Here is the input.
Amino acid sequence: MNLQAVRSIYFFEMARAGRTLLQSLISPVISTSLYFVVFGAAIGSRIQEVEGVSYGAFIVPGLIMLMLLTQSVSNASFGIFFPKFTGTIYEVLSAPISYFEIVLGYVGAAASKSAILGLVILGTANFFVDLHIQHPFMMLLFLLLTAITFSLLGFIIGIWADSFEKLQLVPLLIITPLTFLGGSFYAIDMLPPFWQAVTLANPVVYLVSGFRWSFYGISDVSVVASLVMIGVFLAVSLGVISWIFRTGYRLRP
Amino acid sequence: MSHETPTAPEPTPRTETPAASPPPVIAISGLSKRYDSGFSALKQIDLEIQRGEIFALLGPNGAGKTTLISIICGLVNATGGSVTVDGHDSVTDYRAARAKIGLVPQELTSDAFETVWNTVRFSRGLFGKAPDDAHIERVLKALSLWDKRKNKLITLSGGMKRRVLIAKALAHEPEILFLDEPTAGVDVELRRDMWEVVRELRNSGVTIILTTHYIEEAEEMADRIGVINGGEIVLVREKATLMRQLGSKQLTLHLQTPLASVPPALAHYPLTLAENGNVLVYTYDASEAGDSDHVSISALINEIEAAGIRFKDLHTKQSSLEDIFVNLVRERQ
Here is the structure.
C-alpha cells in the first residue's frame, strides 16, 4: 500500500478546496441559509408541523442531504476531471499506485470536504431552528456513507465526462431533480397516493428519510431500507469504478 | 558506468549487446499496440536499454515514439508483448517497475494554480517517497527553478514549465528518466542548459531515454540511437558506429586552375567536378574507408599531385545524423 501517495493526493485535493474556500464552503452555506429564510421562516411559518416537528426543523436533514449530494458529486467529479482535462493525470497514472489508492485519495478528499460541509450546514441550521439529534451516531453514519457514495458517483462522472458540459449534465439533469423530489422539503405522505408510489423509486428518498430519522425519529421508509439503499448504491458505484479501472476506460487507452 | 562509450570500436549488431554486458535495465519484447480505432501504433517492438546509457529514440511524427514510452510508463495498455524494468514486469509488478521511472511528458501540462514547490513535492509523495525537502531543493537549484519556487505555475514561461516537469520527474530520484521531446519549443540557451542537466544525471548513474525531433540533440547527447518508423524499430546502433557506417564523407579540393574534366589517370576514383571545374569533390563511404582511411586519402592526393593538379585549399565534411536519418526514413517509405 502506497500510503504516501494516497496522502499526497488527499492533501493536494484538500489544499485545492482551501484555495477555493469561497466556492467550496461559503457559497453552499449562503444558499442553505437562503433556503432556511425562505422555506423555514417565510413559508414554513404558515405550514403546520410535520409529525410533531416544526417545518423549519423538518427540512434541515433534507437540506443537508441536498448539499451533501450535489457537493460530493461536484467535488469528486471536478477533482478527477480537471487533471484529465489539463493532462496532469499522466503523473498519477505513471506512479506506483494502485487503482484503489487513486480512488482512496480522490474520493476520500471529496467525501471529507462534503462531510465537513454537511457539518458546517448543520451548525448554520442551528442558528435558524431548534435542533435536536436523537441518534447522533446514526446521523454521522448516514452523513459519511452518503458523502462517500456520492463522491464515488462524482468520480465516475468525472472520468466519463470529456467536456465541461457533460460534467455539469448529470448533476443538473439527474441529481438535482432526484434530490428535490426526494422528500427534502416534504414528507412523502403529503403526496397523492400515485406519486407516493412513484417516489419510492427515487433512491434519494431513502437517504433523506434515513437521515431525518436520525434527527427526529420519524421516517418515510424504514431505516433498514435506507441503509440497504445506501449499501446498494455504494456497491454499484464500486462495481462501476472497478470496471473502469479494469478496462482502462477513458484513462488508459 | 556499464554503458558503452560512444567511441566503442566494434559495430554492434541490431539491438544486440556484447555478451559480457550486464542485463538491460529495460527489456521490451514483442511489444505491440493497436488502438481501438484500429490504428496499429507499434508492431512487435524488441528493444533493450542498457543501464546508464543515454538512448535517443528518433522518428518522424506518428512513428510510435510516444506510444512506446507511454506503455513503458503505464499510461497506455499494450496489446501484446511485455516490458520489464530492472527485472520487474511493467504490468504484473508495476509498483516496483514504475517506482524506478521518471517521465517528462511531451505536452506542457501543469496544475496552473499550484506553486512550483508544492507541485514538485506532490510528485515525490505520489511515487511513495517520504518528504525530503533537501532533495527537492537540490533538484530545483539544479534546474534554476529555486528562485521561482513560490511562483504559481500559470505565471511561468514555457521553458520554465518544461523545467518544472523535469523537476517533478526527478523528485522521486528515479533510476531511469524518460524525456519525451524535452526541448521542443525551448530556446537554444535553455536547450543547452538542459543537455547539461541530462549529462549530469547520466554521470550520476541515471539511464536516460529521450525522444526528439532535433537530430542535433541526439547527435550531441546520445550513446545509442534507435530509429522508429511506422511502429517498427528500424535500427539500433551506437551513435558513433551509426555515423561511421551510414555516413559518407566528402573531400573537397579547391583548385588553382579550373579543370574541364577529371583526368583519365584519376578515373578509378569517384571524383566529380563542381563550380565550373574549380572544385574537385571526392565522396567516399566512411565505413569502407575504415582504418585505411588516411592511406587512401593520401594516395589520392599523391596521384592528384602526380597528375599535375595543384590545389589551394581542401576540407572534408562528414554527413550529419540528420542526413543519415532522412535517408533512412526515406528508404523505408
